[in-house]
């Protein structure tokens, strides 16, 4: 029930291009600004922060969360919550560690396998939510628990080895400066920009903003919801793939920490948790901010006992800024 | 969650009322969840002959008591279209303060004071959601992170002290062969049902959740009423922290961690809409009892943990499936024709 | 007007936030010549974790270490990624050594290896990592699972229905303990495992899970438990039935219960063994001896002795430390969840109850040298080494002999 009063402008324009492009850019722009400010603080306290080694580490650390948050964004935009992210990440991580495949070819097959696992879970979610019309948070809670169970069945304790090629090449750099993980994130963002031009891409915003109106204007709500869940599932699969590259091993509980963090990343990135507004690129940078914040607090010497207090307030402040800036622009545009 | 519920659901609910001929959808929901729980308890005889007994029912009620109290608060917040993720941290707060300030033979009036502090946390949530207009999901998550960190700093990692005498008495004594806490929960359910379904406050919550614009026009003070829902939720969570302290005689900083998802699941399985405006506390109680029963039965199945988890998730999805609108519609249609 | 006001408000908010952040964080980088040592916990909040951390803090403040060490505590939570990130920050900040409770035995290997290459010494306590360049200091290989299982079998005369109260699903420590225990239980066809549940090494969860299992099997004959064991006793008491023989870890409540004549009369028997928080102190002292040049030691796995206290050996302490062979504290002095094994008269004579509870040095104590000998731990794949062969007698009994034949 918050903020309904200020939203008609964006909500009515859910299908119109100029509006959603602006919403997208403003959300992503604000969170990027936050990222830059945090990085400046980090560099101030830790001179090594500017080295390519540190930057690569940072990107490697953030990549799994960023891609998972990107997936979650699809579902959130269509007004839903997808808890199965924790299950899919665990399941694909275990898959990577129990059946490692060497070489670039093996890595490609592994990646396809991860996407397939995510797509299957996404299909089940999509069926439960879009066809059977179950509530998203409850249905995906169920699939999350099932996936966690399956991960435990496959691997009952941390172990296994992820293929060397995956764990070394994907965490390395291109020409010594460009982190490979960064390229993969960029690829996800690029795919998103292409997807935005499709009918389904536009439909996601329309469904999230007002389902009834979207249906009346000829959008197939079922198909859009379904696509959002399947796409999200595949991105969780990629996130699990990248997590495996980073940890080089399997852990049946690997996905659990993602559950809350992805939503924080999505919200930080300027996407409305009630759907219809925001974008995937903001979520990616939002995830980067969350990981960077840990570094900033560490290099600033904040006692671990109190880092949570900072994290909580930064989260609130960031959301407030995100709310505040567009209003500033809107007010300016109107007068 | 922070946008008004599309009108469709409200229409559907009233349409259901008409079609159901007096029995509301919420009542049938509650009957289904309780029915499933009873079936599970009876059916569990096949798993182990000792199950399906009166003592199992008591165990379930006792263990479900935590979840029932929690999900009452969570249910009110969900009713107004919010979500309370700060529950685990507030449980810990209640537990840590109860052992720290009122442990052992401490003064009884400290306990209400602790609940008041928990209520302040709820007010903080409400303030963030209604005044600062922060999405409930993020506001309560931030509160949770802040509070957990503050509890860590305050205790420097080690909560001290034992359970307050009053909480030990609540959780550990029996009366006529039945644990006192079971009587307490029955009274709590009655009071909670009255508050949610039979008071002006309750009706205002439904109105806000169904359509906050309309509620505002009708003169409901959205901000204060919504904040009150968060306050009640925090007080419930704080009280569960104390109950857990009485139950296990001590606090830890992670004592609330396992209650967040169940508290939401109980509400939703009980037939409430996660978008707000729809649901009943009796249904939520049924959801809490069903989840707890499921836990006891699954614990007795001789499978490895992975498969048990798979079954648990599957049954949750199945329970949701049985409570769909269409499922009811199909059940009713043949009877009519 | 409206616009101007808004912009002003925005700027004010911005500045306040930035100033607040900068001010609160303050200056933390005091440069001096002390060894920079990080204490990296995964999480904090239960008795075991904070006792282990307190022991390290107390030792670091005990002369002469108080002049030699700058100790920084970092808690990163249950997320392996957060601990990876924390390790990276520590390496960047120029750590000399990291004493750590690792959240995963395998996920941290990469960053640990990078740290080793930059000359950082990694000492894990209790939980282990499979990266060969880290020093693992742990009791895990000392056979808690098989020895306690044999003790339970002995108490039960080789037959009966039992519960297994395990730790965290998908955790390597839990798996090692349970594998050891199952190695014994499988030899006795008379032993029936009626229920097996996960208690997350927590009293409260143990109590709830045991209550659920008791609903299905009120006729249980014994309980094999990992940490959280005191919860199992409370569940038995709640159910109002008899107590049964059980084995568990080192909580003060469990030890007192074992020694309590009333509870013994109701049927409680058993052994208290398991994970000692004192491992952290041993790891820290080893690290310091290497850094100060008092010891030459290549990275290896070091076994910490398994505490083993059968009911008959429980002895209450009069004072603040383990003296005269005592091994539990009177009720009221410490909470029931307090993990008793915080002292080691031989390895850690510097410690007192004050150290374990509050992380303060014992007045008047100075650091004593460790015995020169260390006990090397056997290889255990997935626990302390990767792609290695376990010894043939991995589950051999060290603390107890079978008194009943299968």
Provide the CATH topology of chain A.
Answer: ABC transporter involved in vitamin B12 uptake, BtuC
Low-confidence stretches of chain A: 1-15
Strand-and-helix sequence of chain A, N→C?
A: HHHHHHHEEHHHHHHH
Structural class of chain B: mainly alpha
SS element count, helices of chain A: 14
**Overall geometry of chain B:** globular
Q: Separation of termini of chain A?
A: 27 Å
Strand order of the largest sheet of chain B: 1-2
Derived structural class of chain A: mainly alpha
Please count the beta strands of chain B (DSSP E, at least 2 residues each). Answer: 2
- CATH C-level label of chain B: Mainly Alpha
Judging from the principal axes of the Cα atoms, what is the shape of chain A?
Answer: globular
What's the arrangement of strands in the largest beta sheet of chain A?
1-2
Number of helices of chain B: 15
Give the proportion of residues in helices of chain B.
over 70%
Beta strands of chain A, count: 2
What does this structure look like?
- The complex is a heterotrimer of chains A (335), B (337) and C (406).
- Chain A has a single domain, classed as ABC transporter involved in vitamin B12 uptake, BtuC, CATH 1.10.3470.
- By secondary structure, chain A is mostly helical.
- Helix content of chain A is 74%, strand content 1%.
- With 337 residues, chain B is mostly helical.
- Chain B has a single domain (7-17, 28-37, 51-323), classed as ABC transporter involved in vitamin B12 uptake, BtuC (Orthogonal Bundle), CATH 1.10.3470.
- Chain B is built from 15 helices and two strands.
- In chain B, strands 1-2 form a two-stranded antiparallel ribbon.
- In chain B, helix 5 runs antiparallel to helix 11.
- Chain C is α/β, with parallel strands linked by helices and 406 residues long.
- Helix content of chain C is 36%, strand content 15%.
- Chain C contains 13 helices and twelve strands.
- In chain C, helix 6 runs parallel beside helix 7 and helix 8 crosses helix 9.
- Chain B binds chain C through residues 44, 47-48, 50-51, 53, 55-56, 59-60, 62-63, 152, 155-162, 172, 244, 247-250, 252-255, 258, 295-297, 299-300, 305-306, 309, and chain C through 43-47, 49-51, 53-54, 75, 169, 195-198, 200, 202-205, 207-209, 211-219, 231, 234, 238-239, 335-337, 357-359.
């Amino acid at each position: 029930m918050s903020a309904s009063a200020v939203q008609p402008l964006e909500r009515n324009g859910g299908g119109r291009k100029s509006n959603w492009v602006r919403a997208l850019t403003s959300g992503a722009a604000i969170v990027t600004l936050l990222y830059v400010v945090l990085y400046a603080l980090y560099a101030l306290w830790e001179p090594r922060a500017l080295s390519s080694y540190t930057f690569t580490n940072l990107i490697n650390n953030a990549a799994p969360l960023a891609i998972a948050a990107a997936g979650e964004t699809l579902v959130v935009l269509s007004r839903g919550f997808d808890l199965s992210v924790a299950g899919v990440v665990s399941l694909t991580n275990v898959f990577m560690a129990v059946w490692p495949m060497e070489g670039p070819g093996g890595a490609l097959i592994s990646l396809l396998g991860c996407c397939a696992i995510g797509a299957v879970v996404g299909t089940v979610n999509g069926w439960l939510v879009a066809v059977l019309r179950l509530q998203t948070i409850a249905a995906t809670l169920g699939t999350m628990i099932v996936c966690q169970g399956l991960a435990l069945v496959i691997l009952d304790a941390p172990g296994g080895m992820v293929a060397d090629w995956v764990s070394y090449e994907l965490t390395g750099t291109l020409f010594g400066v460009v982190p490979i993980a960064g390229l993969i994130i960029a690829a996800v963002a690029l795919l998103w920009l292409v997807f935005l031009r499709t009918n389904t891409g536009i439909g996601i915003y329309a469904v999230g903003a007002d389902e009834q109106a979207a249906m009346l204007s000829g959008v197939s709500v079922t198909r859009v919801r379904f696509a959002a869940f399947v796409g999200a599932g595949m991105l969780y699969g990629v996130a699990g793939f990248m997590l495996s590259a980073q940890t080089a091993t399997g852990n049946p509980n690997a996905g659990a920490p993602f559950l809350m963090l992805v939503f924080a990343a999505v919200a930080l990135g300027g996407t409305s948790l009630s759907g219809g507004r925001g974008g995937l690129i903001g979520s990616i940078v939002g995830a980067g901010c969350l990981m960077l914040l840990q570094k900033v607090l560490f290099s600033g010497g904040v006692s671990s006992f109190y880092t949570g207090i900072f994290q909580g307030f930064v989260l609130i402040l960031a959301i407030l800024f995100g709310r505040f800036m567009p209003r500033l622009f809107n007010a300016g545009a109107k007068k | 969650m922070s946008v008004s519920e599309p009108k469709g659901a409200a229409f559907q609910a009233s349409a259901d009322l008409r079609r159901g001929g007096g029995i509301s959808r919420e009542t049938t929901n509650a009957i289904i969840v309780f029915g499933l729980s009873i079936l599970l308890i009876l059916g569990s005889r096949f798993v182990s002959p000792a199950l399906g007994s009166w003592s199992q029912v008591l165990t379930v009620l006792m263990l479900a008591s935590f979840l029932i109290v929690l999900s009452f608060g969570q249910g009110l917040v969900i009713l107004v279209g919010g979500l309370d993720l700060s529950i685990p941290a507030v449980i810990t707060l209640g537990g840590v303060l109860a052992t720290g300030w009122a442990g052992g033979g401490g003064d009884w009036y400290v306990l209400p004071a602790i609940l008041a502090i928990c209520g302040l946390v709820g007010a903080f949530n409400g303030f963030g959601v209604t005044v600062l207009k922060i999405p409930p999901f993020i506001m309560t998550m931030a509160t949770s992170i802040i509070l957990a960190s503050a509890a860590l700093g305050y205790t420097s990692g080690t909560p001290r002290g034992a359970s307050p005498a009053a909480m030990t008495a609540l959780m550990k004594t029996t009366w006529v062969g039945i644990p006192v806490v079971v009587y307490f929960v029955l009274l709590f359910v009655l009071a909670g049902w009255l508050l949610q379904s039979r008071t002006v406050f309750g009706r205002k919550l439904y109105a806000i959740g169904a359509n906050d614009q309309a509620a505002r026009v009708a003169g409901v003070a959205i901000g204060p009423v919504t904040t009150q829902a968060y306050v009640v939720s925090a007080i419930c969570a704080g009280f569960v922290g104390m109950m857990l302290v009485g139950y296990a005689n001590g606090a830890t900083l992670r004592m609330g961690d396992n209650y967040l998802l169940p508290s939401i699941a109980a509400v939703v399985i009980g037939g409430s809409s996660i978008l707000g405006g729809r649901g009943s506390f009796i249904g939520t109680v049924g959801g809490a009892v069903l989840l707890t029963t499921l836990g006891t039965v699954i614990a007795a199945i001789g499978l490895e943990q992975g498969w048990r988890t798979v079954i648990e998730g599957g049954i949750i999805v199945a329970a949701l499936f049985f409570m769909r609108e269409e499922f009811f519609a199909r059940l009713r249609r043949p009877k009519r024709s | 007007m409206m616009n101007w006001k808004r912009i002003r408000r925005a700027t004010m908010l911005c500045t306040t936030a930035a100033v607040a952040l900068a001010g609160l964080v303050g200056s933390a980088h005091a440069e001096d010549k002390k060894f920079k040592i990080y204490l990296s916990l995964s999480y904090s909040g239960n008795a075991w974790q904070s006792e282990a951390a307190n022991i390290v803090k107390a030792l670091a403040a005990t002369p002469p270490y108080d002049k030699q060490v700058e100790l920084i505590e970092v808690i990163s939570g249950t997320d392996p990624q957060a601990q990876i990130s924390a390790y990276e920050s520590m390496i960047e900040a120029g750590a000399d050594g990291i004493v750590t409770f690792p959240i995963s035995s395998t996920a941290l290997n990469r960053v640990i290896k990078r740290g080793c290459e930059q000359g950082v010494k990694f000492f894990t306590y209790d939980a282990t990592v499979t990266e060969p360049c880290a020093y693992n200091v742990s009791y895990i290989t000392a056979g808690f699972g098989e020895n306690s299982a044999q003790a339970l079998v002995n108490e039960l005369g080789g037959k009966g229905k039992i519960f297994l109260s395990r730790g965290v699903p998908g955790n390597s420590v839990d798996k090692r303990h349970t594998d050891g225990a199952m190695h014994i239980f499988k030899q006795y066809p008379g032993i029936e495992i009626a229920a097996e549940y996960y208690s997350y090494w927590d009293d409260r969860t143990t109590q709830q899970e045991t209550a659920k299992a008791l609903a299905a099997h009120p006729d249980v004959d014994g309980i094999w438990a990992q940490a959280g064991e005191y919860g199992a006793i409370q569940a038995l008491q709640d159910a109002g039935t008899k107590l049964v023989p059980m084995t568990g870890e080192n909580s003060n409540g469990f030890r007192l219960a074992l020694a309590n004549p009333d509870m013994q009369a109701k049927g409680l028997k058993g052994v208290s063994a398991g994970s000692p928080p004192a491992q952290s102190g041993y790891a820290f002292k080893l690290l310091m001896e290497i850094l100060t040049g008092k010891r030459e030691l290549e990275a290896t796995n070091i076994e910490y002795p398994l505490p083993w206290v059968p009911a008959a050996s429980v002895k209450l302490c009069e004072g603040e430390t383990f003296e005269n062979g005592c091994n539990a504290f009177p009720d009221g002095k410490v909470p029931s969840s307090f993990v008793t094994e915080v002292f080691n008269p031989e390895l850690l004579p510097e410690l007192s109850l004050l150290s374990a509870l509050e992380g303060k040095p014992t007045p008047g104590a100075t650091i004593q040298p460790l015995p020169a000998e260390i006990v090397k731990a056997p290889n255990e794949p997935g626990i302390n080494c990767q792609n290695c062969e376990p010894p043939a007698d991995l589950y051999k009994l060290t603390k107890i002999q079978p008194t009943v034949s299968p």
